[in-house]
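Practice problem 4.
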């Protein structure tokens, strides 16, 4: 059994910031039949579009991320139906050394809460392997696994959808595990793509 932290990285090489800005601005300017401008002017143009609620031009650019998280976050993430998901399958993957995602609120590895969680994960692995030894298939044995099971998922969304996901899933009342993941993504997006996410 392994205990790891959730993480994310780019699934595909993200487009250059200037390419994204000009692409979105060009789509928006088609609506108004206006002329393209400099990068700085297009950034300001996009900020104004977002402020006015004209979000359809943001749908012309997508980001794909590779996320490692738990089954609970996966369940919440797939509620965003306009996104595309490719998910690690517990039906077909036969686990030898099971990985579990540590909950972000269990920082103290000596606390009773952490030890109870760890014991639960250990029981899952023992029972999973016992079922496999009884000739149960991975899709049958998976029934004893818990929500902390590590899951890899590729998520592709257009920028409008990413904005919605980040708005909802970084809210103070969002699930702590989901919120921690999305705050990490948002921090990167704000740094790399300021005119698209700086209003958060």
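Answer key:
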């Amino acid at each position: 059994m392994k205990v790891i932290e959730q993480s994310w990285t780019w699934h595909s090489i993200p487009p250059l910031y200037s390419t994204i800005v000009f692409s979105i601005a060009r789509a928006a300017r088609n609506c108004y039949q206006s002329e393209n401008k400099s990068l700085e002017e297009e950034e300001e143009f996009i900020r104004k579009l977002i402020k006015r609620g004209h979000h359809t031009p943001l749908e012309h650019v997508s980001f794909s991320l590779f996320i490692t998280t738990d089954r609970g976050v996966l369940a919440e993430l797939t509620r965003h139906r306009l996104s595309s998901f490719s998910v690690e399958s517990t039906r077909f993957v036969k686990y030898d050394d099971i990985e579990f995602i540590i909950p972000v609120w269990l920082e103290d590895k000596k606390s009773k809460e952490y030890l109870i969680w760890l014991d639960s994960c250990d029981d899952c692995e023992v029972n999973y392997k016992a079922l496999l030894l009884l000739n149960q298939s991975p899709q049958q044995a998976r029934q004893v696994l818990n929500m902390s099971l590590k899951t890899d998922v590729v998520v592709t969304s257009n920028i409008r959808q990413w904005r919605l996901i980040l708005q909802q899933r970084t809210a103070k009342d969002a699930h702590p595990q989901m919120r921690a993941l999305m705050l990490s993504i948002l921090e990167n997006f704000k740094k790399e793509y300021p005119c698209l996410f700086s209003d958060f």
